[in-house]
Write a structure and sequence with these properties.
Layout (H helix, E strand, L loop, with lengths): L9 H11 L8 E4 L8 E5 L4 E6 L12 H11 L9 E5 L9 E5 L16 H19 L17 H16 L5 H12 L9 E3 L8 E3 L6 E4 L6 E3 L1 H12 L23 H12 L7 H25 L5 H8 L2 H13 L1
Antiparallel strand pairs: 1-2, 2-3, 3-5, 4-5, 6-9, 7-8
Length: 342
């Protein structure tokens, strides 16, 4: 976490919480998390307990982006499900309070693994973390959408067709230079789009190890974070997103497993993780996975392009890191083409 942050109007936040949050008692202080690039996130400290505030960034925003209202809604709906989420307290859509919409949730105390290498854990713990990660993802995809009141959380129809059109449009709107690999990948995805198999579930949209909080002294996931890209869609998009991430370079930017001897380190192979997921869902296997993986690379490239555009426009939460992440756009596009070729 960074030092005390002055970008958040603490006087306004404290006044709002005193009026709307039961049992709230100040004084209030705040520290900004270094993570949470898209929607700035703050740890709110009080003498009695801590909370987390997540807000939209300042400046001109893309339509439908940074939807903290949707993040609040889905986490609140999932609180009674098998999917671990933080407790939701308040959603404030009055932009006059701090300049943007925001929500207040519980501060979940646990450990967060920035990279999937899980350094510091022994081999058995590593495997247990990944097994739990796969089970939580499967549990999310088995949530009864109607039972939790989220039947209208996403449109009907072919999810990948819809997402391909959306992210192509979004990528073009944030394009800062022509990237031939992205142009080719878009055309290839359009021509290899599989038929809709009818699967329709809640999807997280950015499911990876660093968006999970685990027990301090255990391997159980306590909360899934960062639901900005969640919707109703196809479950394989989340699974492919995990596999995509692992093909990235190691380190704080790539956050992948490229070059890691997974067998020696007791980290599941891509297929082993997919098998864990399928076993929990009772599925025999997955066909056409190369398309889902390529699409994941494309969408992440589009997301990173948006991050880069915000940095160049002066609206990024962490400009230096945003520019570094933006440099990965051509690499993700090439990986997408490689996935399709396999």
């Amino acid at each position: 976490m960074s030092s005390e942050n002055t970008a958040l109007d603490l006087i306004a936040v404290e006044a709002y919480l005193r009026a709307h949050l039961p049992n709230f008692a100040g004084p209030l202080s705040a520290v900004k998390f270094e993570t949470g690039q898209s929607n700035p996130t703050f740890l709110l400290k009080t003498p009695a307990r801590n909370y987390v505030l997540r807000r939209k960034p300042m400046g001109v925003l893309l339509k439908s982006a940074h939807a903290v209202e949707r993040e609040f809604r889905i986490q609140k709906a999932l609180i009674a499900s098998n999917v671990p989420v933080a407790g939701m307290h308040l959603l404030c859509e009055d932009e006059d309070i701090i300049g943007s919409s925001f929500y207040i949730m519980d501060h979940v105390v646990g450990r967060n693994f920035v990279e999937p290498t899980l350094r510091g854990l022994d081999g058995s713990e590593r495997m247990q973390v990944f097994e739990n990660m796969g089970e939580v993802l499967a549990d999310l995809h088995m949530v009864d959408i109607n039972a939790v009141g989220l039947s209208d959380y996403g449109p009907a129809g072919n999810y990948f067709e819809r997402q391909l059109a959306r992210w192509t449009k979004q990528y073009r709107s944030t394009e800062t230079e022509r990237i031939p690999e992205m142009d080719t990948l878009i055309k290839e995805l359009q021509s290899t789009l599989p038929l809709d198999d009818g699967q329709r579930s809640l999807v997280h949209g950015d499911y990876r190890i660093d968006n999970l909080i685990f027990q301090n002294n255990g391997t159980q996931c306590l909360a899934v974070l960062d639901w900005e890209l969640s919707t109703i869609g196809h479950p394989y998009s989340d699974l492919a997103g995990v596999i995509m991430q692992w093909q990235m370079p190691q380190g704080p930017e790539g956050r992948g497993l490229l070059g890691v001897d997974r067998e020696v380190n007791n980290i599941p192979s891509d297929q082993e993780f997919m098998d864990m997921y399928c076993a929990h869902r009772g599925l025999p296997g997955i066909e056409s996975f190369e398309f889902y993986l390529a699409f994941s690379f494309f969408r992440m490239a589009g997301i990173l392009q948006g991050v880069l555009k915000r940095a160049m426009s002066g609206n990024a939460s962490n400009p230096e890191r945003a520019k570094k992440l933006g440099q990965y756009v051509p690499l993700f596009a090439r990986h997408g083409l490689d996935a399709l070729s396999k």
